[in-house]
Specification:
Elements (H helix, E strand, L loop, with lengths): L14 E4 H20 L9 E4 L5 E4 L2 H7 L5 H16 L4 H20 L4 H22 L1 E2 L5 H12 L8 H15 L1 E3 L2 E3 L5 E7 L7 E3 L2 E3 L11 E10 L19 H24 L4 E4 L5 H9 L3 E3 L4 H11 L3 E2 L11 E11 L2 E7 L7 E7 L2 H24 L1 E4 L3 H17 L3 H12 L1 H9 L4 H14 L6 E4 L4 E4 L6 E3 H19 L3 E4 L29
Parallel strand pairs: 7-16, 10-11, 10-13, 11-12
Antiparallel strand pairs: 1-21, 2-3, 4-17, 5-6, 8-16, 9-15, 10-14, 14-15, 17-20, 18-19
Length: about 550
């Protein structure tokens, strides 16, 4: 107030929440998100059925998918959803773990704020704890060779446990390892496995056991002409990204025709041009033409006459995968098409899968792009298998790139909890309280795994701590939910990539620190359509271009 005159800084209707109320609201919202996915954690986690406003159903226990489908309004809750997205993009697995840890860190920090520990001190303690946690995890790591398919299969199977793929986990894990191993490349002594080079096609019908990998590519396209061959053996493939059509002129021109014979000359010239295009394809020795753009009806006729299998309007991403799979180069001008630019495949054929015709390009030599065709009884089953397979492909790729795995089943979290408590004592000060809270928060993972499996969480956590402290090789002990006991996770063949754990800890810490440092939430009032005024371009007279009175 200045001379009893109120000063209004923010527009009317703006809401501001400060101090402990702001902290409390943000923490509550973030914890609500973590609680929404908590029951899906682990092999015995439950599924969620999500129904959108259109009535479409998604049934899944994949944390990233659940949070993506939820219509979240609260800004702090949206920040937690971002953690799941980052985890999914980076590692494919561990999305629920990251979100649950973030929620638990905020729960523990709320208790510290009530004890008058400053949020900056807490976030600083969390940062120190996260740095130390990454070092401890690296020491726990077990090296895995990119060619050790047995070990990579265990990593894939761990990622798919409890993902609703039934008894086909073994088959899908084999497919995942085979696919990623095919596309992995060595660059400057390091392996790189880009799962974008693995094309996943889904068709409901059949059973999950009919899912298979193809050393080549599947195109959801049929041949252009019924007279083209259905199967081409030892195919030489031309990949063309220009249209086999008559080009339209850049400039607008009108031609006057006074005589029907002139019209016929135009048509003959068009036909001649298209025939010449097909001749160029034939001359290169190509037996299969895959075109990114359109192909004229007449050109289709000539291609069929020459016995060339042709497909048109193929996606750019599929063209690039075909280039990697067949070794062919994508040509922009038909004049550049030579035998040396063609790709090779053992067989190109049209097959009917479910209710659509698809083109299978198979038998490629050492393909750097492969396809997986997912089958399943219903659309929902196929979608869930795709999500499980995505996780498996990503964790195998991460394991090949980093070459390090850690035991699963909550073993790393218990080891971190014990080691971080000791580390906290060396730091001292108020940060020690935050580090101890961080250590306690990590125990939520084995706790939740046991809870979701119907075990006694308190007994399990105590037993795990005893095993890690007293047993030889105890650091590998975790919750064996399939046998309802505590056991060595390496012996139980439960392995996860190191990156899944480090990323989960770092992302959860970052988002928890960011939410803690917010002490004031200023939310503008949403404008109603009447407050928004006339639409852009509508003049002062509500769309009449600001016409002066009397001009109506």
């Amino acid at each position: 107030m200045l001379g009893n005159q109120p000063i209004i800084v923010l527009r009317e209707g703006t809401e501001s929440t400060r101090g402990k109320t702001a902290h409390s609201n943000n923490i509550m919202a973030a914890r609500a998100v973590a609680d929404a996915v908590r029951s899906t954690l682990g092999p015995k986690g439950m599924d969620k059925m999500l129904v959108d406003s259109m009535g479409d159903i998604v049934i899944t226990n994949d944390g990233a998918t659940i949070l993506k489908e939820l219509d979240i309004e609260h800004p702090a809750a949206k920040m937690v959803v971002e953690v799941a997205k980052t985890q999914d993009n980076e590692c494919g697995d561990g999305t629920t773990t990251a979100v649950v840890i973030a929620g638990e860190l905020l729960k523990k920090s709320e208790a510290l704020i009530d004890q008058n520990v400053h949020p900056t001190v807490i976030s600083n303690g969390f940062r120190l704890a996260a740095q130390e946690a990454v070092k401890i995890l690296k020491r726990m790591g077990i090296e895995v060779s990119p060619t050790d398919k047995k070990m990579l299969k265990l990593v894939a199977m761990t990622a798919m446990t409890g993902k609703g793929v039934g008894g086909e986990r073994d088959l899908l894990a084999d497919i995942a390892v085979e696919a990623v191993s095919s596309v992995a490349e060595k660059e400057d002594g390091k392996y790189r496995a880009d799962i974008d080079n693995i094309q996943v096609e889904k068709k409901h019908g059949g059973a999950v056991s009919d899912t298979n990998m193809i050393k080549g590519l599947i195109l959801d396209k049929e041949r252009m002409h019924s007279r083209m061959p259905r199967v081409v053996k030892d195919a030489k493939i031309a990949l063309v990204d220009s249209a086999l059509e008559i080009k339209k002129t850049e400039v607008e021109a009108k031609i006057q025709i006074r005589d029907p014979t002139q019209m016929q000359k135009f048509l003959d010239e068009e036909e001649k041009t298209l025939k010449a295009m097909v001749e160029k394809v034939k001359k290169s020795g190509a037996t299969v033409l895959i075109c990114e753009k359109g192909v004229d009806d007449l050109a289709q006729h000539y291609l069929a006459k020459e016995g060339i299998y042709a497909v048109r309007r193929v996606k750019r991403s599929d063209m690039e995968k075909l280039s990697k799979a067949t070794g062919g180069k994508i040509i922009t001008n038909l004049d550049d098409l030579k035998a040396s630019e063609l790709g090779y495949a053992g067989q190109v054929e049209e097959n009917k899968i479910s209710d659509s015709d698809m083109t299978f390009v198979t038998g490629c030599k050492n393909p750097k792009a492969v396809s997986i065709l997912i089958r399943g009884g219903t659309e929902h089953v196929v979608d869930e298998v795709e999500r499980a397979l995505h996780d498996a492909l990503k964790v195998v790729a991460v394991s090949i790139e980093d070459g390090v795995v850690v035991p699963g089943g909550g073993a790393p979290e218990i080891e971190l909890a014990l080691k971080l408590r000791n580390y906290g004592q060396t730091v001292g000060g108020r940060e020690q309280l935050a580090i101890e809270a961080f250590a306690e928060a990590l125990e939520v993972i084995p706790w939740t795994l046991a809870e979701n499996a119907g075990m006694d969480s308190i007994d399990v956590v105590i037993e795990l701590k005893n095993a890690h402290n007293n047993k030889k090789g105890g650091k590998n002990f975790g919750v064996n939910v399939l046998e309802n006991r505590v056991s060595d996770m390496i012996a139980a063949k439960v392995l996860e990539p190191l990156r899944v754990k480090t990323q989960a800890v770092q992302s959860a810490t970052e988002v928890a620190s960011m939410i803690l440092r917010i002490d004031d939430v200023i939310a503008s009032k949403k404008m109603s359509p009447s407050e928004m005024g006339p639409p852009p371009g509508a003049g002062g007279m509500g769309g009449m271009g600001g016409m002066p009175p009397g001009m109506m």
